[in-house]
Amino acid sequence: MNLYSLLQKRAAAGRPVRVGLIGAGKFGSMFLSQVPTTPGLQVAAIADLSPDRARAACRSVGWDEGLIAATRITDDAMAMIASPDVEVIVEATGHAPAGIAHARHAIANGKHIVMVNVEADVLAGPLLAREAEQAGVVYSLAYGDQPALICELVDWARACGFPIIAAGKGTKYLPEYHASTPDTVWSFYGLTPEQARLGGMNPQMFNSFLDGTKSGIEMAAVANASGLTPAPQGLDFPAVGTHELADKLRPGNQGVLHHTGQVEVISSLHRDGTTVANDLRWGVYVVFEAPNDYAKRCFQEYGVVTDPSGRVSALYRPFHLIGLELNVSILSAALRKEATGAPTGFRGDVVSTAKRDLKAGETLDGEGGACVWGKLMTAADSLRIGGLPIGLANKVPLIRDVPAGQPVTWADVRIDQTDAAYRYRRQMEAAFPAG
Predict the structure, then answer these.
(1) Which residues of the chain are modeled with pLDDT < 70?
(2) DSSP string, 148-205
(3) For the range 290-294, what are the long-range contacts, defined as Cβ-Cβ under 8 Å and sequence gap of 24 or more?
(4) How many H-runs (helices) and E-runs (strands) does the chain carry?
């Protein structure tokens, strides 16, 4: 709780924390908006496939022309990473293979890496985090995004001595969303294609938020970083309001969970489409338990909301501010040498799952596309069936038919086994026995 004071010491010494940002999209732009009001933090360079687009993003968030001119803006991310004037790299491309390459280059060059790119983290994060640790740099999930915020709540509960029953986030969910495509996504959001276009909204990206893929990716990241685990069937998306967290999110006959210590996403919609009261669509939560009768009595004395037993409670945060909060990760890495969440094992995976009957000869179009959505699985189950990770499901041809609702496996596709991301993923699988 002293990041700002530590930052001011750096500023007073004339040594601002200098950041290199890769990807000036929505998340990156939100981060950039906070830079002018954070003394001691500087963006030394921005790498984007379109430097002009990056400059436009800076203008759109309020940067003046002097600040833009003082910032190196390039389309060469690898050169930017290696530059000696950059201390922390922020990877915000959302492209899993690129994220792995950028993270490894940052680690090799002695730079801390904040991985906004959760897709890359879920594909191979455990091995990236091990590489970073061996190199003496920080590999971190991105504060402001839900996985890091969930990890913070989990850490709080454990540090206080509370056993954890469940942790996760909220979202808008109905079963039919799994079949959504970029052509149908805006109707589910209540938008016209023209409204989405004017808002600069990417239909494939927003479809990944809707069809369950992003929820699976984020919960796999939480599982791999926290030690919590998915249910065998993946995510159930139960309709639960904040007033019901402690009562419903319990295992067995007591609630909707498969086991204690589970990651789960709760829906802001009932299955009939009506809105859940006190929904947590934008927030995160942890459900925990009093470890003894004395703690239970303290819950009562201090007005803690519990289940009927008086032992189970929940703490939640109703929203997350995405890139507006990213400074916390950057400063934690640079000033404390600590991650705001990082994978410690391979516990959850996200497997490509057919949205419709797929035919041999078709080419998969990746996360949020028309062919597959990403289903959360235990890592052990993913390895057992040879599941194709969603992060490698783009521009990959099918060599066998896959029925709707079935997982796509390595054996169903023609994969380039010389591809660097594929090889690194396989190396990660070998290095981390599924737990």
Answers:
(1) 1, 435
(2) HHHHHHHHHHHHHTPPEEEEEEEE---GGGGG--TTTHHHHHT--HHHHHHTT--HHH
(3) 290/162, 291/161, 291/162, 291/163
(4) 17, 14
3-class SS shares of the chain: helix, strand, coil, % to 5: 45, 20, 35
Distance CA 415, CA 392 (A): 9
In 3D, which of 352, 350, 348 has the Cα closest to residue 394? 352
State CA 265 to chain mean position distance.
13
Partners of 139 in the beta sheet? 113
pLDDT reported for residue 435: 65
Torsion of CA 179, 184, 189, 194, to 10 degrees: 160
- Structural domains for the chain: 3-144+326-336 (3.40.50.720), 147-173+212-320 (no CATH), 348-431 (3.90.1210.10)
For residue 15, the tally of other CB atoms under 10 A from its CB is 11
pTM > 0.85: yes or no:
yes
> 435, 433, 429, 420: which is closest to 104 by C-alpha?
420
* Letter string b/e over residues 220-256, b meaning 16 or more CB atoms within 10 A of that residue's CB: bbbbbbbebbbbeebbbbbbbbbebbbbbbbbeeebb
Note the helical H segments in 192-305. 193-198, 203-210, 213-226, 245-248, 293-301
